[in-house]
């Protein structure tokens, strides 16, 4: 019974903390931004409103469809959330939704080889979160 209460409380608390209707969203985002800024030396922007120009993708290599995935006839989409860094490299890829048999790993490898022009804020290149989609 205590364990069930703990689980319910944690779920309720996480819903409360992430609820944009309660007015706490900006406080949480500010905390996250400060943590990112202390780990990285620069802020990482996540919306077009925060920057003057979004990153421009010059080339996006295709992910390799693995032999094992072909054998199992896997179809679907891999969604990644990555930082398009001011330095021109793709960093910190997080899997939003993946696929089995090496397709997620192939998508990450392809995503890290993307060539792009960084986002611009106040005339300076900045880092920016973007979502990548790979269809199989």
Could you explain the architecture of this structure?
With 136 residues, the chain is α+β, with helices and mostly antiparallel strands. The protein has two domains: 1-39, no CATH class; 44-135, TolA/TonB C-terminal domain, CATH 3.30.2420.10. The protein has helices spanning 2-18, 25-39, 67-71, 103-111, and strands at residues 44-45, 56-59, 77-84, 90-97, 115-117, 119-121, 124-135. The strands form two sheets. Strands 1, 3, 4, 6 and 7 form a five-stranded mixed β-sheet that branches. Strands 2-5 form a two-stranded antiparallel sheet. Residues 1-39 have low confidence and may be disordered.
Task: Give a brief description.
It is elongated, with a radius of gyration of 18 Å. It is built from four helices and seven strands. The chain is α+β, with helices and mostly antiparallel strands and 136 residues long.
Helix content range: 25-40%
Rg, rounded, reads 18 Å
SSE string, helix = H, strand = E? HHEEHEEHEEE
Principal-axis shape equals elongated
Q: How many domains, in number, for the residues?
A: 2
Counting DSSP E segments of at least 2 residues, the number of strands comes to: 7
Biggest beta sheet attributes:
5 strands, mixed
Mean pLDDT: 80
The number of helices is 4
Name given to the CATH homologous superfamily of the largest domain? TonB
CATH architecture field of the largest domain: 2-Layer Sandwich
Percentage of residues in DSSP E strands:
25-35%
| Derived structural class | alpha+beta
- Rounded to the nearest angstrom, the distance between the terminal CA atoms is 44 Å
Uncertain segments are: 1-39
The CATH class assignment of the largest domain is Alpha Beta
Give the CATH topology of the largest domain: TolA/TonB C-terminal domain
